[in-house]
Amino acid sequence: MAEDPRYMTLTGHLRELRQRLIRALISIAIAFVFTYYWSEEIYRLLIAPLIPYLPEEQRFIVFTTVTEPFFTYLKVGFLGAVVVAMPYILYEVWAFVAPALYEEERRLFLPLVTLSFLLFVAGILFAYFVVFPVAFRYLMGFSGEMLKPYVSMALYMGLVVRLLFAFGVAFQVPLIIMVLVRAGIVSIERLKGWWKYALILSLVAGALLTPPDPLSQLLMALPLMALYWLGVALAILFGRKGG
Predict the structure, then answer these.
(1) Closest CA to 222 of 131, 146, 137
(2) For the chain, domain boundaries
(3) Phi, psi torsion values for 152, nearest 5 degrees
(4) Phi and psi, residue 194, nearest 5°
């Protein structure tokens, strides 16, 4: 008979955590079998935003060591496996923490985790379809008679992963705002009054993270402001416990 999670000892909780971690790792391993098989196709998707902005005679990616393609595809397969297995991993997280939560906390936890995942995916899609084309067009504009781009597949992979992760995290802003309001750390009225500061920070972020032209900066700043107000709206709907 399974032990009731509400009355487990510390050893019991550690044993359950170990079992759930093992199941999560197994799910990643199973997904990896498929994602590694398709790793070349996945990598082609990752380089698709760059290729149109390379010189016509150099629309290819290079590798500088014998093992670079193998390890790059290995990383692609692993990261793809984590993404594919993420719904099951989130389920294991939910199943582990749910017994320790109050009823109201249980009602909030699953929607919050789901929203966080969806916002992360939205950030990735925004970076891929909006930011990458603008950024690569600008960066490849430095090439010419004296400068020829030879893009390393491993270095490009590292850059893309960092950018995708950064935008995924940036898109957590609405969720962070909602949690801060619910925890009583900041009020909705104060957030409404801070919109000018949020606008300035969004413009600064746009200037730092995008090419130095007004269109590119707006492509970054406007979504950040939209995320800020989305966070305020979510806080109004779900952040306050009463009144």
Answers:
(1) 131
(2) 1-169, 172-243
(3) -75, 135
(4) -90, 10
In a structure prediction context, what are the per-residue pLDDT tens digits for the chain, which is 243 residues long? 455 555 567 787 788 889 999 999 999 999 999 999 999 999 999 999 999 998 888 888 999 999 999 999 999 999 999 999 988 998 888 888 878 777 777 777 788 888 888 999 999 999 899 889 988 888 888 887 788 888 999 999 998 998 888 888 888 888 888 888 887 888 888 888 888 888 888 888 777 766 566 666 777 788 888 888 988 888 888 765 544
Report pTM. Answer: 0.79
The first and second tokens of residue 84, run together, are: 């594919």
- The string of DSSP codes covering 4-40 is PGGG--HHHHHHHHHHHHHHHHHHHHHHHHHHHHTHH
C-alpha–C-alpha distance, residues 48 and 25, integer Å:
30
CA distances from 243 to 188, 202, 239 (A): 12, 31, 11
Q: Please tell me the total number of residues recorded for the chain in this structure.
A: 243
Say which residues have a Cβ less than 8 Å from residue 183's Cβ, sequence separation at least 6: none
62 half-sphere exposure, CB direction, 13 A CA radius: 8
Q: Can you read off the two tokens belonging to residue 126?
A: 């925004």
